[in-house]
């Protein structure tokens, strides 16, 4: 039972995301469930490592939970806030690319092919901060930041699924920001 606890936390995030889809936005209960969902995302991986309970099922369930969290909240935010039309088109394109990546990777590797890249983690963090982006900088800025991060992580995952010689679900990145920044610093000197 102890080894299933990380997966239970992940399922809790799916249930919480579904609850958020119908809760009044920016209320105390909304933020309480939102916080539990975020904690479960960080907690499930941490516990899986601590309990030596990392499994392919847990990894796939975690990615599915993250996709559902983003999908449910995108629909919820869109139903109560003025989301720019351009953001909806870009989000639809990102969703198409994500599905394409999953299908190509799954067919190519003969198993669900979610990749846990650094950009994927950064994109989730950007999305988790969505209420703050919105409250302090406005909807257009919130959409731009979040969609940029989601787009980069999705394109990176698609490239990896299309080009990797073998499947590595823990591939860190192919877009090395530190390397790019070092090159930029050298050129600017």
Specify the biggest β-sheet.
Answer: none
The total strand number stands at 0
Radius of gyration, CA atoms, in whole angstroms: 17 Å
Mean pLDDT: 89
Termini gap: 58 Å
- Poorly predicted runs are none
Derived from helix and strand composition plus strand pairing, the structural class reads mainly alpha
Percent range of helical residues? over 70%
H-E order? HHHHHHHH
Shape: globular
How much beta, percentage-wise?
under 5%
Tally of contiguous helical segments: 8
Give a description of the structure.
By secondary structure, the chain is an all-alpha fold. It is 77% helix and 0% strand. The chain contains eight helices and no strands. The chain has helices spanning 5-20, 28-50, 56-80, 85-109, 118-128, 130-137, 139-163, 177-188. Helix 1 runs antiparallel to helix 2 (28-50), helix 4 packs parallel to helix 7 (139-163) and helix 5 runs antiparallel to helix 7. The longest helix has 25 residues, at 56-80. The N and C termini lie far apart (58 Å). The mean pLDDT is 89.
